[in-house]
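Project standup — Tuesday

K.O.: blocked on the structure for the chain from last sprint. Re-posting the sequence here as requested.
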Amino acid sequence: MHDWANVAELVKPKSLQGGLVARSAPGLPFLLHGGTEVAFVPPVLDAPRRGVVREVGHLGDGAYLVLFDGVDSIDSAEALAGCSCLVRRSDLPDGFDLIAERELAGFEVYDEDAGFVGSVREIIDNTAQRLIAIDGEAGEVLVPYVDAIVIDVDREARTVRTRMPQGLLDC
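H.V.: unblocked you, prediction finished:
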């Protein structure tokens, strides 16, 4: 699946015609637009596995209303709520992820449980996974840059919200 990138999360159904509220994946701008082919993961029984974006509308506060071909009812939309949208990397702008990650330098990092952690120094492209290098009171902390940990990036507030595994911040 390295040829595909997770670019958006489907948050909830929005209309009887199958519209879904979507947000960009952490650290990325919103990359879905008309004609974009996506794969929905994880696969859901009795729901489409793939779709093509038919229409996108901005709802505000980082949320978008997205309509997909083949998702034409509230039932289909409900089944896909909670899924991620994968897009072929070849269909995305060159360096889409690196540009977004460079912009995170200096963002403040807050954890759901620990509160303020520190500031992003850089994104390290490790062969296994990307890491966020955070400078804080506890010194340097390296955090895997994965959806399960990085739950929100707010570009306007210049903050990163995380849900770190227990013990990751213990020194």
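K.O.: great, moving the ticket to review. Residues 74-80 form the longest helix (7 residues). The two ends are 35 Å apart (CA to CA).
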